[in-house]
Amino acid sequence: MAQAPEVTETVRDAARSGDWAQRTGRIGLAARGVVYVLLGIVAFRVAWGDRSESADKGGALALLEQQPFGQALLLLLAVGLLCYAAWCLIEAVLEQDDDDGDDAKDSAKTWAKRAGYVGRAVVYGAAFASAVSILRGSGGGGGSGGGGGSEQTVTATILGWGAAGQVLVGAAGLGFVAAGLWNAYRAFTTKFEEKLAVDEGPSVRRAVRVVGVAGLLGRAVAFVAIGWFVIAAAVAADPNEPLGLDESLASLADGPLGPIGLSVVALGLFLYGVFSFAEARWKRLQT
Length: 287
Prior knowledge:
The protein is an all-alpha fold. The protein contains ten helices and no strands.
């Protein structure tokens, strides 16, 4: 049986053998773009009164399925989501240590990045499963507005474990907050431009920069909001606190900034989808 290093090298050799891996990645990035554009649309509808909408990925996929030729579009999107999950796993294997002169630090950074890629693969693999579930007519993640129900059930179960459950739920909330802060960091430093090869002129590069910054900030706010409510649920041991994206966004709409604040976040999510299309076109993918 092949050892782990041999498996890793086999995957790397396969990725180098042709451009199929890059095509997989670009298809996946485009599919991610569709999901976030839909999330932005659903969040905007939640902001202005349609609280029956589910603003999680399942609700966004259900919205697509309701459009003309929706099932065919959803099938194409499901394939794209599967491609993105596969590409994340490929990136996890291809990721190599930076050469900063500190082997321990470089190795830790590499494994953190690999863990992030695997986490994304799980999230978008779940989105693929949700799309398949909707296509099969089982109602998984449909637009009934119950997107957070399963999340609250799982959280209630974990919180039932006592202090250990609270720690686990709190850690998940901190993970969301950390992801949000990382997106904000990428927005303010515009480091995402380092991985883009936009050669269509300065005006196009400026447009991509603006869309990228706005999209990452919108994503950051959404992630921090989810993390905040998850941490609050852990501290209070209350699984009825808003936990999913849909409940978190609805709570933002009820907050001091009201629907206007949520509309700004919705625009950010929409623009992150547009930025994903830009990445599908111009991002330098690992090989």
